Amino acid sequence: MKYIRSIFNRPTEVGGFTLVETLVAIVVLLLAIVGPYQIATRSLFAAGLARDQITAYYLAQEPIEYLRNLRDRHGLRAKGTWLNGLSHFISPNKCYIDTFNENTDVCADGLCATPLSYFPTPGVYAYAGVGTQQASPFTRVTQMTQINGNIEYAIAVTVSWSRGSINRSFTIREHIFNWQP
Known about the structure:
Elements: H1 2-9, H2 19-77, E1 95-98, E2 103-106, E3 115-119, E4 124-126, E5 134-148, E6 152-163, E7 166-177
């Protein structure tokens, strides 16, 4: 009996965690969870930014192709009048081009702040369209500048957009020529 009593009288070690060990374990667990979460969040933001940049590039390229097409149509119909239909784009005018509806409009007071709308049914960005429209963060401004007499003009298209608190803009420049003298 003494032997058993001495076992119970002897101090025994506690087999649980201390408060410091528990806090260290929680910090390690939080780092293991928060690190990948932040990486995933930043990756999603970067993917959205890349999508917006690609969309901005194509939205900027679209009016250049439209103006090149107008130049070719007018140049083939009547020699020497290749700028017919393009004159209101020439500096200092800044213009909207709605390539989907083939409409153009000069910006009021040079301020072109009207955003494009997105129409999901045909899958296009335009200023007017058919069906339901969604708000778009993109604005697009087109301007032509005379470079060399009646032979060469520079086209500048600027697309601006916002993503969160970040404002971005993208400008693409192209030169068109009177290829039928």
